[in-house]
Specification:
- About 2% of the residues have low confidence.
- The chain has nine helices and eight strands.
- It is α+β, with helices and mostly antiparallel strands and 277 residues long.
- Strands 5-4-3-8-7-6 form a six-stranded antiparallel β-sheet, sandwiched between helices. It has a two-stranded antiparallel ribbon with strand order 1-2.
- It is globular, with a radius of gyration of 21 Å.
- Helix 1 packs across helix 3 and helix 6 packs across helix 8.
- A hairpin with a 6-residue loop joins strand 1 and strand 2.
């Protein structure tokens, strides 16, 4: 009986973790989790505390809303290397760096920030080292980061810039919110983002967003090079490569989503069949 109870607690805790993950951007309140899960308030709170101790979930001190924790992000990043976006984008990153001889990057969104998941080195002898795997920047700072921000709805762009305003003004004086908002407009018009050496003077970058089949932002591909290799004529060439590879990655994402959507009804049918036996 105790073994069954323990297993049930694990199932419930994992269910709550999944619910928190679905509200990753804005967080979720205790009352919302109680309603969604069907659990009572004390049980929900007890399970959340266990997830917090494991750093899978964290609670904002001011809003009291729950978010995915640091450990969930680490595990997700590790899993992505085998099952996720990085695996799907790896061939594209290799092709980009071979064609251009410059470094290419895969970045993903982490709340109001961008995280570089992977850097594929180019062969050109003079390289920019401004961005490395694991580096974080506020959304809108850097080519890939700006491409993702520009792909969000206007109200979400406003929320991100408001949340990051202090860090932008103190740590990125060349990129205040009003400048990034203008860059978002330009990125949408052109269909790609450009960082003309605003973080490091000789490090330029171009980027394009990766979208999920439902129109959400999956991440971004970008290329960085020294300023002499990123003049306007070459920007167009690099963007054409990025766009081509972005479509390839998005086709893989669409196939993955279609496969999962097909598997869910089949799994549900098998579960129902076992219950009826």
């Amino acid at each position: 009986m105790s073994e069954l109870s323990g297993s049930q607690s694990v199932d419930r805790a994992l269910g709550l973790l999944s619910m928190v993950g679905r509200h990753a951007d804005r967080g979720v309140s205790l009352s919302e989790l109680v309603e969604e899960s069907g659990l009572n308030k004390p049980t929900t709170r007890r399970l959340l505390l266990a997830l917090m101790r494991a750093r899978m979930v964290e609670q904002d001190e001011e809003s009291r809303r729950y978010y995915l924790g640091e450990e969930a992000y680490v595990l997700g990043s590790l899993a992505s290397r085998r099952f996720g976006l990085l695996q799907m984008a790896m061939e594209s990153l290799i092709r980009l760096s071979r064609k251009t001889e410059d470094s290419s990057f895969l970045s993903v969104r982490r709340d109001t920030y961008s995280v570089c998941l992977y850097r594929e080195e180019g062969t050109y002898p003079v390289r920019t080292h401004a961005l490395q795997a694991g580096f974080e920047h506020p959304l809108g700072v850097g080519a890939g980061s700006l491409a993702m921000l520009a792909s969000l709805p206007d109200d979400e762009v406003d929320a991100v810039l408001a949340a990051n305003e202090t860090v932008l003004r103190t740590q990125y004086p060349m990129l205040p919110p009003e400048r990034i908002r203008e860059d978002v407009r330009t990125t949408r018009e052109k269909g790609y983002s450009l960082n003309p050496g605003l973080i490091f003077a000789n490090s330029w970058g171009v980027g394009v967003a990766l979208r999920t089949p439902d129109g959400g932002v999956a991440g971004a591909l970008s290329i960085a090079a020294i300023d002499s290799r990123m003049q306007e004529a070459r920007q167009a060439e690099l963007v054409s490569y990025l766009t081509q590879e972005a479509r390839r990655v998005e086709e893989k994402l669409a196939g993955m989503f279609a496969s999962r959507n097909q598997q869910r009804p089949e799994a549900a049918a098998r579960t129902q069949s076992r219950r009826m036996k």
